C-alpha cells in the first residue's frame, strides 16, 4: 500500500484515484466485519423492538422534584413496568383518539390511544375485582410517543398529569381534566403531585392495591394559594366521590363518574399472561373505611387513624372552653390544648371527627 505520509501533491491523478479506492474498500470491509461481529447490518430496515430486560433507550423528559410528596422520586429514567422490564416502544396500532379540552375548551388536544396488549408487560396486570368500578382500562396513551408539553387544558400540560417513568402507557380521563381546570380557575396555580400510575409503579411507591391512580380518575393536589381544607371543599363542590386530606396534599377522585369510552370499552378476557380481567356487575365498590381513636398522654392529645392509603392524614384540632366557645384551631399531628380548654375535637383526613373531654390536672 502506498505511503500515506508522503506528499500527495507529487502523485499522479491515476495514483490518487487508486489510493482513494483502496482506502474506501478497506474502510467498507472493516465496517462490514464490525457489523457482523455484533449481528447488525444496516440494510435500511427498522430495528427490532427491544426485548423485555434489554437495555432501554436514553430517557426523555425531566423527572419529578426529588422528595416531593406524590412525585414518587425514586426517579426511574425509563418506563417502569414493576419488574424492571420495559415493553417495546413497539408498533402498536392506534384504534381511536382521546380529545381533551385544550387551552380554549375546543376539545382539539387529541392523542391516539392503543388497545391493551400482552406486550405491555406486567406493569399492566390489574388486580381482579368484582366491581365494574375497578375494571381495567382497555386503551392507553403511549407516553413515549406523545408530546408532554401538549396543553390538555388552559393551565395543564400532559406531562403534569402523566409521566412515562410511572408507566409507558397511561390513562387520564377527560372528565378529570375538566374538573381540574374548573378548580384551578377558582384557586390559581395548582400542583399535581400524582396523577396516573401503572400497576408496577404503584407497587414500587407503596400505593393501595386498588388505588384510583391506576384508573385515571384521581389526583393528589396542593396549592400555594389556598389551604388544604379549601382545596378539599372545592373537590367536593365539583363532585368528587372521595376526598382524603393528608399533611401535604389533598387526594380527590371521581371513581363513580362514568368512565370515558376513549379508555374504557368492552371488557376483554384475561389470557395466561394476565391483563384485563372480566368484571362482574355488582353494586358500587365501597369507599375506603376509616377508623380512629383519640388518646392523650401527659396533657398531649393524639389521633390514631387507619384507612389513609397515601401517607399521614391531615389533622385539624379545635379547643373549646366550658361554655363551648372556640379557643383556637391548630393543624398538627398532635395537640396540647390551652389551660382553659374543656373539650378537644379533631378532624382527621376530612373523613373522621373525634372528640374528648380534657382531663382535669
Short descriptors:
361 residues; Muramoyl-pentapeptide Carboxypeptidase, domain 2; 4-stranded antiparallel β-sheet
Explain what you see:
There is one protein chain. The protein has 361 residues and is α+β, with helices and mostly antiparallel strands. Among the domains are: 94-253, Muramoyl-pentapeptide Carboxypeptidase, domain 2; 291-357. The chain is 17% helix and 23% strand. It is built from 5 helices and 17 strands. The protein has helices at 13-38, 158-161, 174-187, 199-204, 228-237, and strands at residues 94-100, 109-115, 139-142, 151-153, 156-157, 169-170, 190-194, 218-223, 242-245, 250-253, 291-297, 300-306, 315-320, 326-331, 334-335, 343-348, 352-357. A 4-stranded antiparallel beta sheet has the order 1-2-3-6, covered by helices on one side. Strands 7-8-10-9 form a 4-stranded antiparallel beta sheet, covered by helices on one side. Strands 14-13-16-17 form a 4-stranded antiparallel beta sheet, with no helix packed on it. A hairpin with a 5-residue loop joins strand 13 and strand 14.
In short:
By secondary structure, this protein is α+β, with helices and mostly antiparallel strands. Helices cover 17% and strands 23% of the residues.
| DSSP summary, beta strand count | 17
Which regions contain 5 or more consecutive residues with pLDDT less than 50? 1-86, 267-283
What spatial order of strands do you see in the largest sheet? 1-2-3-6
Output the structural class. alpha+beta
Rg, rounded, reads 29 Å
Q: Could you say what the CATH topology of one domain is called?
A: Muramoyl-pentapeptide Carboxypeptidase, domain 2
Helix proportion = 10-25%
Known CATH architecture of one domain: 2-Layer Sandwich
Q: Order of SSEs, N→C?
A: HEEEEEHEHEHEHEEEEEEEEE
Principal-axes geometry comes out as: elongated
The CATH class of one domain is Alpha Beta
